[in-house]
């Protein structure tokens, strides 16, 4: 799941990016509204975390840009503006959720999971596919009731596949879900992760569609 964080406070941005990456998100950072608008139009993320008090423009103008361009992005406002009127303005402008600073990381992650479920096929924190169960809250994967030991990116890759049952995921789309812009990505990174996952999963659980990508079908 690709997140764009728009935040000009370096310390806060760094802390949030580290926490979100540990939680299994691919996160990119923009420190200005204008840069965010450029990124959004070139490569829209799945979720935008938007501060309103940006140095070059108001965050609500970024939100207006998104809605005017009809970009399909879930927007969670993160701001110190805590008045009821400010919340109403943000939500009426098209935000999907609104969280005031300071906030608890657990609450942010919970709200992100809600937005994430709106984007995927899963409508609960538990995803069941045949003998496999994936708990997106606890980052726990069970196979026939036994816990699987997965690396962070193996978990992210498996989650991306099972949330899109029957829908082929290209290597490029999977890379976007697993890696941030400044990550060094080996040309065969996805293939390596798929290979390692297959050693832990039932035979043919992940199918290769030659020349297209990978898919997990309903079991």
Automatic annotation (TrEMBL):
The keyword Transcription regulation applies. Residues 124-218 bind DNA. InterPro entries: CheY-like_superfamily, OmpR/PhoB-type_DNA-bd, Sig_transdc_resp-reg_C-effctor, Sig_transdc_resp-reg_receiver, WalR-like, WH-like_DNA-bd_sf. GO terms for molecular function: phosphorelay response regulator activity; transcription cis-regulatory region binding. Residues 2-116 form the Response regulatory domain. Gene3D superfamilies: 3.40.50.2300, 6.10.250.690, Winged helix-like DNA-binding domain superfamily/Winged helix DNA-binding domain. Residues 124-218 form the OmpR/PhoB-type domain. One of its GO terms (biological process) is regulation of DNA-templated transcription. The modification 4-aspartylphosphate is found at residue 51. The keyword Chloroplast does not apply. Pfam families: Response_reg, Trans_reg_C. GO terms for cellular component: cytosol; protein-DNA complex. Keywords: DNA-binding, Phosphoprotein, Transcription, Transcription regulation, Two-component regulatory system. This is Response regulator receiver domain protein.
